[in-house]
Write a structure and sequence with these properties.
β1, α1 and β2 form a beta-alpha-beta unit. It is built from six helices and twelve strands. The protein has a seven-stranded mixed β-sheet with strand order 4-5-6-7-9-8-10, with helices on one face. It is globular. It has a single domain (7-258), classed as Metallo-dependent phosphatases (Purple Acid Phosphatase, chain A, domain 2, 4-Layer Sandwich). It starts with 6 loop residues before the first strand and ends in an 8-residue tail after the last strand. It is an alpha/beta fold. The structure holds fe (ii) ion (2 copies). One fe (ii) ion binds at residues 14, 16, 48, 79, 81, 203, 205, 222.
C-alpha cells in the first residue's frame, strides 16, 4: 500500500441555507474555513442545501452563492427541500420538472461521476428513485449503468440524499425517510455484486454508520439550522458536523467531524 496515494473527501449535508437564518450561515462559514485549512480533494454535499422551500428563489440564490465560497472542488446532489419528494405524503410537494430545472440552473447536473484516487464517486438524485417522473428515473438508471461500467473495477462510492435503507439493504420496510423498495433492491444488488463499496447519504440529520451486503453505509449529520417540524429519528448520533473519508487503495477510513472539530461557534 502506498500511503502517499491517500485522498480525502469531505462529506457535508443538510446545510438548509437561507439569508433569514444567520446561525446556518455562521456554521457554513466554519466549514468554508475548515476546507481552506484541510484542503480536501473533494467536497460532496448530499442535499437539502436550501433552508426549507424548494420554490424560494431567494434561498436558492443565497445557497448557490454560499457554495461558491468553497475554494476546493465540490459536487452536490439535491434533497427533498431542494426539489420536492416522492409519494406518499411529500413534504413541500412532489418533485417537478420546474424544480429540477431550478436546481440544475443553480448547481449544475443533479448526477455526476468523478474519479478520485483509486475510487470512482458517483452522485445520484435520490428524489428520482421510485418517482412518478418515469423518464427522468429511467435515464438516471441507464446513466448509472454506464458509469459503473466505466469504473472498470475501481471501488465505487455512491452518494445520495436519502438513506438507501433504515437498517439493511435487504429489508422490505418502507418509510418515506428512505428510498423506495424498487430502487433499494437495485442498490442492494450493486452492493452484493461487489461493485459498490460505500453509500453516503444525508437527510436523517444524524451520523449513522452501517455495514450491509458488503457496503459501508454512512449518514452525514446536518451542518445547518434545521427547519422547524423536522422529526428526530435517533437512528444514530444527533449532532451538527461532517464526515471525512480518507481513501487509500480500496480502504476507506471514516471520521466524524463534530462542531468543535470544524471550529464552529454559536
Ligand atoms: Fe435535511
Ligand atoms: Fe432531507
Amino acid at each position: 500500500m502506498n500511503l502517499l496515494s491517500q485522498t480525502t473527501v469531505l462529506h457535508i449535508s443538510d446545510t438548509h441555507m437561507s439569508p433569514e437564518h444567520p446561525l446556518g450561515r455562521q456554521m457554513w462559514t466554519s466549514v468554508v474555513r475548515y476546507t481552506e485549512k484541510s484542503r480536501p480533494d473533494l467536497v460532496i454535499h448530499t442535499g437539502d442545501v436550501v433552508h426549507d422551500d424548494p420554490d424560494s428563489d431567494t434561498d436558492y440564490e443565497f445557497a448557490a452563492f454560499q457554495m461558491r465560497r468553497l475554494t476546493t472542488p465540490w459536487r452536490i446532489i439535491p434533497g427533498n427541500h431542494d426539489i420536492g419528494d416522492t409519494e406518499p405524503d411529500p413534504y413541500r410537494g412532489l418533485t417537478t420538472p420546474e424544480r429540477l430545472k431550478r436546481f440544475r440552473s443553480h448547481f449544475g447536473p443533479d448526477r455526476w461521476a468523478i474519479t478520485i484516487g483509486d475510487w470512482t464517486m458517483i452522485g445520484l438524485n435520490s428524489q428520482l428513485f421510485d418517482n412518478h417522473l418515469l423518464e427522468e428515473e429511467t435515464e438516471q438508471w441507464a446513466w448509472l449503468d454506464e458509469q459503473l461500467a466505466g469504473a472498470d473495477g475501481r471501488p465505487v462510492g455512491l452518494f445520495m440524499h436519502k438513506p438507501p435503507s433504515i437498517n439493511t439493504l435487504g429489508e422490505d420496510l418502507f418509510v418515506n425517510k428512505a428510498v423506495g423498495l424498487r430502487s433499494r433492491s437495485r442498490l442492494h444488488e450493486l452492493a452484493r455484486s461487489g461493485v459498490v463499496k460505500l453509500i453516503g447519504f444525508g437527510h436523517l440529520h444524524e451520523h449513522v454508520v452501517l455495514y450491509s451486503a458488503g457496503a459501508l453505509l454512512v449518514g452525514a449529520p446536518a451542518i445547518g439550522a434545521v427547519p422547524a417540524g423536522e422529526s428526530v429519528w435517533q437512528l444514530g448520533l444527533r449532532c451538527n458536523g461532517a464526515v471525512e473519508y480518507r481513501l487509500s487503495g480500496d480502504t476507506v477510513r471514516v471520521r466524524l467531524l463534530r462542531e468543535q472539530d470544524l471550529g464552529m461557534t454559536r
